[in-house]
Specification:
The protein is mostly helical and about 260 residues long. It contains ten helices and four strands, in the order ααααβααβββαααα.
Length: about 260
């Protein structure tokens, strides 16, 4: 039921059941249930699914219809200043949290030179079989030594040692040097400092996490560059903004009552 109501709100607005004469002003978008971040840009609350990177949930309505109503309103430029100022503060908090995450994760980057065994599928299957056989030979050698003495177990031990050399040789042939890790200052995701299993810095940039934070940081810079424009708008329309603050104060009082 709640999902159906949210869908209707997004499609038709929160005042869809109010009579036309009561909502003829065309300002449904100012309703407190409408997400203003979405109205003037985007709301990234559900962009990131990793638990430790999830943003604060947003329970407001994200309505394309309300965005169109806002953009077509004669006072949209005035409303936009308020909404974008709030949006800027929100994005600055998101970016600040991300920067702190980057600082913590940087210390966890694996250094270059770490030895890693990378064995392809078929070779790994053969290696597993040899290791099982080696373990069995060692077990039999120990049993023979307990029952019949060391001389009786020597044949199994010789075979086991030869097999161990073969196993070590396979691992050595497939041991490579890890290129090390770096971390993305944009999104905080670690990536190989060189080509590694099909991944590198450029492939990392095609990921959803990086794409999302890149959009956030781009929008952040855009909004920071508009501060003078906002101040000019507020100075030219002081009475309008004063009336808006007064109306908001009355609304707060009504909610308290």
């Amino acid at each position: 039921m709640d999902e159906t109501r949210a869908l209707l709100d997004a499609l038709m607005g929160p005042k869809r059941n109010v009579k036309a004469e009561k909502s003829s002003s065309g300002t449904d978008f100012v309703d407190k249930t409408i997400c203003k971040k979405f109205i003037v840009g985007f709301c990234p609350h559900d962009w990131f699914t990793l638990q430790k990177r999830q943003l604060k949930p947003c329970h407001m309505v994200h309505s394309e219809m309300m965005k169109l109503q806002f953009e077509g309103h004669p006072d949209s430029a005035k409303y936009r200043v308020e909404y974008e100022e709030d949006f800027l503060r929100y994005l600055e908090e998101v970016a600040r949290d991300c920067d702190q995450f980057v600082s913590r994760e940087r210390t966890r980057c694996r250094p270059k030179g770490t030895k890693t065994v990378r064995i392809p599928g078929e070779a790994q299957t053969r290696l597993d079989e040899k290791e099982l056989l080696y373990a069995e030979l060692i077990r039999k050698s120990e049993e023979m030594a307990e029952k019949n003495g060391l001389a009786a177990s020597q044949a199994h031990m010789i075979e086991a040692n030869a097999l161990k050399e073969d196993i070590d040789g396979i691992k050595e042939r497939h041991t490579v040097e890890f290129p090390g890790e770096d971390i993305c200052d944009t999104c905080g995701v670690r990536y190989p400092a060189g080509p590694w299993e099909g991944h590198d810095k450029e492939s990392h940039k095609r990921g959803k996490m990086h794409d999302g934070f890149q959009k956030i940081r781009d929008k952040l810079e855009e909004l920071r560059g508009r501060k003078r424009e906002w101040e000019k708008m507020k100075d030219e329309h002081k009475d309008w903004y004063r009336a808006q603050r007064k109306e908001k104060g009355k609304e707060v009082d009504r909610e308290r009552e």
